[in-house]
Amino acid sequence: MEILRTYSIIVNSGESIKIVKDKPVCLICNEAVAVFKEYNISRHFTSKHKNSNYEAMSEYERKQNVESLCKKLSGRQNFFKKVNTIQEAATHASYIVAYNIAKNNKALSDGEFVKQCMLQVCDVLCPDKKNNFQTVSLSRKTVTSRIEAIDKNLTSQLESKIGQFKFCSIAMDESNDINDTAQLVLFIRGVDENFEITEELACMRSLKGTTKGCDIFREFQEGLLTLKVPITNICNITTDGAPNMTGKRSGFLGLFNQNYPGNNAVFLHCGIHQDALCKSALIMKPVLDAVVKLVNTIRSRRLTHRQFRDFLQSVQSEYSDVLYYTKVRWLSAGCVFERVWQLKDGIVSFFHEKQCSAECEMLEDTEYLPDFAFFTDLLCHMHNLNVKMQGKNQFIDDIWTHLKAFKLKLNLFAGQLAKNDLSHFSRLNSIPSVNEEKLKNYEDGLKKLHFEFERRFQDFSAIQTELDIFTMPFNVNCEAVRSDLQLELIELQSNNHLKQSFLNMPKLEFYKSLSKAAAASLAPVHILKGDAEEERREDARLSCIFGSIAIGDLLKSTLGPKGMDKILVCDGRSMTGNVELTNDGATILRGIGVDNPAAKILVEISKVQDKEVGDGTTTVAVLCSEMLKEADKLLTLKLHPQTIISGFRKAAVEAKTALGEHSYDRSSNPEQFEEDLLNIARTALSSKILNRHKDFFAKMAIAAVKRLNKNTDLKAIQFIKKLGGCLTDSFLDDGFLLDKKPGVHQPKLVENARILIANTPMDTDKVKVFGSRITLDSVAKLGDMELVENQKMKAKVDAFLKHNINVFINRQLIYNYPEQLFADAGVMAIEHADFEGVEKLALVTGGEIVSDIERCETVKLGCCDRIEEVMIGEDHLLKFSGLPVGESCTIVLRGATEQILNEAERALHDVLCVLVTTVSESLIALGGGCTEMLMARRVLAKASETSGKESLAMEAYARALMQIPTIICDNGGYDSAQLVTELRSAHAEGKVTYGLNMTEGKIDDMLKLGIIEPFKVKSQVISGATEAAEMILRVDGIIKAAPRRRNPDDRHC
């Protein structure tokens, strides 16, 4: 505050004091005042200037004098500042000239020549500034010192950047300079924690003597030591592939691994160099020699060269000359070939005018010209690949992508040449006729080149997984990557915000954004209590759609008559090692555990489909997933979900209309209807394990359904599975078989059976209090207790025997004593009959199940004409014949393994369901993708008449329908694009009964082939898939409740 007050007094009073570098300076004597205080300043004026004219001046004169003194001081200060500014500018200019001399590889003495030119230009443009240019020092010594200073500065900058590198890669190349001195060049490329990439020439080391692996390794070590590069930060070393570089013992690679064991460096051969070396697989030396000879003929003779250039100028050619071939330049051959091809007509005309046609006869030779055209085209393709891989800021995954694309192109080229298709060889295509032998040679050459690419780039294939992690981290299987990356990768893939960012921004920018702060800002805000989770809007919708698509992709390969099977392995406590082999969609979805809520919806619709019609469980889930896949594309186009749902509803109406118009009802003709039932059973079995014997099992299923007499309850049909034999040993029995046998000393055959079916305990009573015990003090009391129990059990048996029964079947265990009582009474007693078997037995015998002994007097007994013990394989079973419910029957399945029997039962159950559905509703529809194509075409026609964005949703619905025949073709190993296109064309021509014949791999008439399905199955598929897709598209939020916390049980056992 004292300083501010003093400064205010000085300014207001007009004293001749000025602040210079935070010190008060007297303007009269130019002396500094020691302390910036009012007393010190006053004392200075009293002691130094008391008798001066300054005291006699008025206030106005004093202010004028102060202003004059301030101007003088400013003039003196600016003079020195101006001199300093000019000198700094001259030094800066000297550095700029020295930098350009070094960059353009000019002589150091050229600086003096540059200065002379600058002064002469200055004399013309700005003579008054000549003195400024004179101060720029550009002598040889100055330029040398400037370049050395720039070198030190750049080195220090590079060392500073290297110190910040988290990872870096080194590229090495050893070659000779013009003085035949071997030079080892090291390039470094590194990335810091902010993903800032630096790519620089690290150093160049001279190899004075030999260039063995040990020499290269020594210079490599010294170069890294100079730049202070940590070995642990090196993740990749790229070499030129020479033996002294890649030798595993005495080469650089071997010495590096020996001296730095456990390093994580990946060694690669330079991709651009490899690409150039791959040309060695081509037999192009005769063509190359002829082209080089022609070029040398033109350029080596001065007169001929001048005349040729004048000739090109006279005909207004695009090019003015041919190019020399240089072997050490990788792109030279392609450039020379292309230039000669462009000028070939001019070259021929030129030599004809000179009457030297022998010099260019190669360009008129019909045998040589196709080879020249082929290699010119191929070298142009390779030239483009090489150029793509060059330049700064190239990532290794981009280079590998270019290489993989070129390998695919080579396969495409070879395949097209085999078909005489020269689409991608324009120069070869311009030649009128190329014989087949040459085309075969060209095809072989392309295959050899492809093999060479595969062989030389194996080191890139070895790191394919690592490249995939960087290129598309959201599509990588987490289980296939290193364990230290798995958790981080899962976190990344689960964040839909980051996935959207990855798709919308450059790759490098995306990884820059993955800082801790950015990740924290992207984390959702939790408003729910405890550990509850919430996904909103697009995240929730995408989660549902992707989960549904995953279910569809899982089931897709099982669809159709040639679909594949899945093995389900259960590792639960009660079923460890249990294996299921199936291609049934409902069974697969029941057997797998899904966590995604939308995936659970698909599981439910598959179960409903199985319950309603018994078939189409795979189709409904796959169709729904295809609808959602198409809907996802529309969502990316910013269509609202409600618009898509509305379009799907309209499309479903049109699809069902088309399905109804092309359905058939031939139940009025009994013979035709029976044939339709047989065809429906065959069609249903064609995609099952019983496909090989579909005629045999189709007839068996029809016979079983006929016994139902149009009853839709399949409980009257019993399945018995017995290991042994083969599938064709299976049979249909007209009675009811129970997989049990009578008790000991009981009758094995019962005529006119009167059956009591019970679900009651037939053992000793138990005290049902946890931890209770009964203590007896003598053996006699134990005998008395057993006697009481036997009396109670005898009373229970007597109550049953009062009904004059001769067969007793119990759901629970029958102990020895009651079993003996039943044997003494001549009653067949059967224990532990499974609950489902007891239910069916009560149904077919007309009896009721007794649970309470007190009301057993009012129970209804079952009956049958005969019960006998039969043998199937090596097992004994009970057969019930002459049942009051005539529709009952048993299908006995035989097979080699339990898995085959289980899948055969599921297949027959599906067939029985579709047959029962057809009997109750006799409409049929065509299979083989025919109805899907019909519905798709109807929906597309309606979409073309519909205005607005709903038409896009309808078109998407149609594309989803057409995916069903496409998937069926793919699963059969056929060309889906060809067959589906032919099918669309056939329907457009009015052949609306045509579908896919998967036996012969062509389209055919489904009605004639008998490939038909129940109308209700198709209708249920459309309804279920559409409703499920609508339900999932409506979702804009997923809330997961917090898991219930389990309190530890501290009670004593």
TrEMBL record:
Keywords: ATP-binding, Chaperone, Cytoplasm, Nucleotide-binding. PROSITE patterns: TCP1_1 (PS00750), TCP1_2 (PS00751), TCP1_3 (PS00995). The keyword ATP-binding applies. It comes from the Eukaryota. GO terms for molecular function: ATP binding; ATP hydrolysis activity; ATP-dependent protein folding chaperone; unfolded protein binding. CDD domains: TCP1_beta (cd03336). One of its GO terms (cellular component) is chaperonin-containing T-complex. It is found in: Cytoplasm. Belongs to the TCP-1 chaperonin family. This is T-complex protein 1 subunit beta. It comes from Araneus ventricosus.
